[in-house]
């Protein structure tokens, strides 16, 4: 697969300006050129950039990182994961190395990296500073056809597995005295990583959770609400959709479940344009959600 310098910038987090400097000063990359003299890079050069970025954020000088062979880079990167680094560099290190290994479908390495990040940053910290920015970068590349959809699905699948495992470890923390939350995605939504994180956060805060997951028909939702009588509903809208359609769905939920608080998160471009009935609340940021579910002291 071929990548423009803009693609490399989006996927690695390294500015195009720095990529050009590393290329010119340290001969880190040897791009090919189109007939119009535009640079383009292949998979090997993308992987090398991600490795160099990982070493840089681990504290190595760029001049040294660029001079290393692929084998030397791999050895150093393997050793660096257990070391303590400043938070920002640590996060960038994990991002670059998870993406690098996801590109070659190295499941064991991706799992180990996420596990290490969980240990160092916690599940929530990993989501905030590693998983979310990483998925943003991967999503941009996928939209530009510079990242194969199978690679994005591979990475998302592992993240989902890790979140399910984290949720399983905190099931006993639910308290009968806490509110019951019903979590779901609308029938046309299937990206549930944010919903899984919400399930984890609620459970660790002691709340009770019923997790329905993705693509829940409205009739199934009605049946579950009648059967379980939850205090709160939480769902995500991430797809780009006509505002009228989003408004109609929100109004339907609000009128059907009048006695339930309904919380919504997701695509700001869509959600920012709708009117919220009195029992519907927009969780615009993660801290908004943290504040709502935090125990009252």
Query: In one word, what is the shape?
Result: elongated
Q: Tally of extended strands?
A: 7
Given as residue ranges, the uncertain stretches (5+ residues, pLDDT < 50) are none
How much of the residues is beta strand, in percent? Answer: 5-15%
- Summing up helix and strand content along with how strands pair, one would put the structural category as alpha/beta
Keywords: DNA-binding, Repressor, Transcription, Transcription regulation
Protein name: DNA-binding transcriptional regulator, MerR family
Pfam families: MerR_1
GO molecular function, one term: metal ion binding
Textual characterization of the structure:
The protein has 297 residues and is α/β, with parallel strands linked by helices. Helix content is 59%, strand content 10%. The protein has 13 helices and seven strands. A five-stranded parallel beta sheet has the order 4-3-5-6-7, sandwiched between helices. Strands 1-2 form a two-stranded antiparallel sheet. A hairpin with a 5-residue loop joins strand 1 and strand 2 (39-40). Helix 3 packs across helix 5 and helix 6 packs across helix 8.
Task: Set down the secondary structure blueprint.
Layout: H1 5-12, H2 16-26, E1 32-33, E2 39-40, H3 43-57, H4 62-67, H5 70-80, H6 87-103, H7 107-143, H8 149-168, E3 180-184, H9 193-204, E4 208-213, H10 218-228, E5 232-237, H11 243-256, E6 261-266, H12 268-271, E7 280-282, H13 286-293
Parallel strand pairs: 3-4, 3-5, 5-6, 6-7
Antiparallel strand pairs: 1-2
